[in-house]
Fold this protein.
Amino acid sequence: MQQKKEIINRLRSSNLRPTKQRILIAKKLFDRKETFHFTAESLNKTVNKKMQRRISLATIYNTVEAFKKAGHIREILTNSSKSYYDTNIKSHHHFYDPDKKKLTDIDYQEVVLKKIPNPPKGKKIKDLEVVISLQKK
Amino acid sequence: MQQKKEIINRLRSSNLRPTKQRILIAKKLFDRKETFHFTAESLNKTVNKKMQRRISLATIYNTVEAFKKAGHIREILTNSSKSYYDTNIKSHHHFYDPDKKKLTDIDYQEVVLKKIPNPPKGKKIKDLEVVISLQKK
DNA sequence: TACTAGTTTAGAATAATTATAAACTGGAAT
DNA sequence: ATTCCAGTTTATAATTATTCTAAACTAGTA
């Protein structure tokens, strides 16, 4: 179990004031073994399940955006209408099942690239993501 | 220049009645040398520029969906809030510039994969897409 | 020429997200 | 401790992208 102090430090170190709401959301997101895929909507449900005082949806959005900017989570490429996020910020890849709208991590070493193109002038590569879309056999 | 007949045949062969609107949209999309990236909104602008009779936005959406289902266009993975489409239906990859919200094709042979994972049971791979996100150097 | 299923259309409805502005709070200064 | 205020949260309104609805239209067959 991640200590509250660790979470507070993580927040402080990225210039995020450690409010009750942020600490609670950070716990839900980061205090787990497996990496976690979520949308604003699903996080809202998770966080507000059996809670006395609820965190507003606006705060969920604000916090997700703040955590994304700070690099604690990353947004995943899909062609769903919702934004999907991942607590695994290391470069890795996904299966996407459009039927179930489910993402699954692909272990980094499961994809090996032999050749990638040079970025256009004045630009560098920020991220490289492989998405393998699935369908029924 | 692609002949009107060709376009009509293409529509018919995918069970799409060749209406005035679909023919006009198909011309805009397919009667060009380079492949074309667009959103519903941008296509709407393109199609309705200096037109006497305009095509409604609903028809743009309907037609894009119909063309996508028929496999004449494909949807591109991004994390933009809009859906991006590509007239290049061959498997290929993209640079994405989040600043300009611009996609650029990457030639298929510019990306070489050495190893990809097996799909989960009961599923097969529908599509594999590499997106390289860019940032300023 | 008439008919009908498929299509188009304007506008309403919905879904996801962002903006607004008033109330609240963490933490520095007193 | 108390005051203070910038940063944060909140409910709600606004916006954006997309889908739905149902009436009017049309391609193509009879």
Notes: The mean pLDDT of chain A is 90. Chain A has four helices and seven strands.
